[in-house]
Write a structure and sequence with these properties.
Elements: H1 15-67, H2 69-73, H3 93-108, E1 117-123, E2 128-137, E3 145-154
Antiparallel strand pairs: 1-2, 2-3
């Protein structure tokens, strides 16, 4: 007698389609996660670029002050954050340096309702100066966040 194997398979209609839909769902969730990470990375790179620009601008004016040391020590480079609009022209080298520096700050760094600004102040009457560059970065909520780079330098 020959034994026959009997296969009793229930029909699996549509099960492969359900597997495919679940795979697409898992893939789409993964892709959304990757897109979120990419957006976060781009935002971080943009913030780092602005901080690098602010650092460059602060060191630029420090180098200008070292090149014009006598005027720097005489207080001609001391300015406050009060106004971001550079004065037109400039009769002295220090005035031209400050004009170019403040113009570069406004042109390079982002601004909110208040333009990006720079401040230079002498510390304790010596040969050390504090240079501050301040700018505003937008957020998702729309309210700008004040950012600043501060460095101290000897002239």
């Amino acid at each position: 007698m020959i034994a026959r194997s009997i296969n009793h398979h229930a029909p699996q209609r549509g099960f492969t389609l359900v597997e495919a839909l679940i795979a697409v769902l898992v893939l789409s969730i993964g892709l959304l996660g990757v897109a979120g990470l990419q957006l976060s990375s781009l935002r971080g790179n943009s913030d780092a670029a602005r901080r690098s620009q602010a650092t460059f601008l602060a060191y630029d004016i420090a180098d200008r002050m070292r090149a014009n040391r006598d005027s720097a020590l005489a207080g001609e480079y001391d300015i406050a954050l009060a106004t971001a609009t550079p004065a037109a022209g400039g009769a002295t080298l220090s005035q031209r340096d400050l004009n170019e520096w403040r113009t570069s700050i406004v042109a390079t760094l982002p601004s909110g309702a208040t333009p990006a600004t720079g401040e230079i102040s002498r510390l304790a009457g010596g040969e050390q100066f504090q240079i501050t560059v301040r700018w505003f970065e937008g957020t998702q909520a729309g309210a700008p966040t004040a950012m600043q780079f501060v460095t101290r330098t000897d002239i």
